[in-house]
Amino acid sequence: MRSRALVATLAVVALGVVAATANAGANRAQANKLTVWLQVDAQSGWPDVVAAANQQFQQQNPGWTVDVQYQNWGDHLQKFDATLAGGTTPDVIEMGNTEMTKYMAAGAFADLTSNKSKFENSGTWLSGLAKSGQYQGKVYGVPYYAGSRVVTYRTDLFKKAGITKAPTSLEQFMADAQKVAAANKGVKGFTPVYLAGTDWYSALSFVYDFGGSIATTHAGKWQGALGSKASVAGLNAFKQFFSSTAPASAATLDEAHPAPYDVFSQGRAAAIFGPGWYSCCVGTKYKSVTAQFVMPSHVDGQPMPGFLGGSDLAVPAPSKSQAQAIQWIADFTSTTSEKALQAKGNIPNATNLLGTSVNERAAARSWFVPAAKHWVDVENGNILRNMLAQILTGKLSVQQAASSASDNIASVLNQP
Fold first, then answer.
1. Residue 324: how many other CB atoms lie within 10 Å
2. What does the alpha-carbon distance between residue 137 and residue 342 come to, in Å, rounded to a whole number?
3. For helices 47-60 and 335-343, what crossing angle results, to 10°?
4. How far apart, in whole angstroms, are the C-alpha atoms of residue 17 and residue 13?
């Protein structure tokens, strides 16, 4: 009995040692796995770029593997929130640039400020994209790739009006639009440029073109800037452009109802201003006569600053592999990787990497919304949309509407 008991005891101990060894090995294997969340765009559009970054990382970090898990835009934030609550976050996550502020303000991402120099071209990151990854003077997100806003237009209608070159200044664009309108005055419901009046993404580009802005910080407090001389000049320019090119009926409409590309595809507009991907939806009938040009500045030869869409890469604060996560991001956003993304039709993350395509030239000057915790409340409160409707319908003067919006924005942003 005793010998049997001893044998049984030894067996249990041995099994325990084996189990402990196995668990230790599993833990080491788990510790040497970097989990990366990317959107499905990468899986379908540039899997080779992802694979090359993984290979480079693994060469630099022997014994490590990279587990890339592809996510969908529709539910990735809900899934990320669940991992934050459960302490099971990925080590690297792709975020849409407009999604960053909420998480930066909540302390969900690691501070990458001291590591900025490890990322190639970080000194020339696209301004509008870089700002989306910065909060209170610190860097939390690394620009990945961008999407710009351009003018999509019908070359046949411009040629019909005697226009053979894209305009290089805002004044010339308005003059061209008038020529197009005159050449198509017999077309019912036609407008040379369709622009929704409350499309603040477009309108604020005029503000930034004249040196204005939405809000700035001083002594730790937000101050509205739309009532400034420069911002008002930009809003006046937007009102003039809208009044001379777009239908008055669109003064209170947003950019989704109707979508500008729907108006374009119905043959009721010669041009629209918006994201570069609008060209996908212009309708089969006009596909062969559709092209794009950079929205021109009021300064001849310059692009108008555009609101950049795009993605950033961040390291969730709970990650136990932050050093490796930073290394992987550095590999995935290196000059080689960004050039490869560029070859796939994306806009790279730095001005020195930009090529000569319309979308890339448009990205050379860009802007982004204030990196404030309560910015989403400004959007949800329709402060900017209401301001633009007041201006375009003449309910208030530009100065009155801008100053009122400016005060409201400061009040909202300074909430605790």
1. 22
2. 29
3. 170
4. 6
d(CA 410, CA 357): 38
In one letter, which amino acid is 372?
A
DSSP 256: T
Q: How far apart are CA 386 and CA 279, in angstroms?
A: 29
Residue 259, amino acid:
A
Bridge partners (DSSP) listed for residue 269: 191
Contact 57, 323 (CB under 8 A): no
CA dist., res. 401 & res. 354, Å (int): 37
Q: Are 263 and 272 in contact (CB under 8 A)?
A: yes
Tokens 């480079």 appear where? 56
Whole-prediction pTM value? Answer: 0.85
User: Tens digit of pLDDT per residue, the chain (416 long)?
Assistant: 333 333 333 333 333 433 333 343 444 444 599 999 999 999 999 999 999 999 999 999 999 999 999 999 999 999 999 999 999 999 999 999 999 999 999 999 999 999 999 999 999 999 999 999 999 999 999 999 999 999 999 999 999 999 999 999 999 999 999 999 999 998 999 999 999 999 999 999 999 999 999 999 999 899 999 999 999 999 999 999 999 999 999 999 999 999 999 999 999 999 999 999 899 899 899 999 999 999 999 999 999 999 999 999 999 999 999 999 999 999 999 999 999 999 998 999 999 999 999 999 999 999 999 999 999 999 999 999 999 999 999 999 999 999 999 999 999 999 99
Rounded to whole angstroms, the Cα distance separating 280 from 383 reads 31
The domains located in the chain, with CATH, are 32-148+309-367 (3.40.190.10), 150-307+372-413 (3.40.190.10)
Quote the DSSP letter at residue 286. G
CA nearest to 254, candidates 203, 213, 207, 206: 203
Query: What are the CB-based long-range contacts (under 8 Å, 24+) for 153-158?
Result: 153/270, 153/271, 153/272, 153/290, 153/291, 153/292, 153/293, 154/264, 154/270, 154/271, 154/286, 154/289, 154/290, 155/289, 155/290, 155/291, 156/289, 157/183, 157/184, 157/270, 158/270
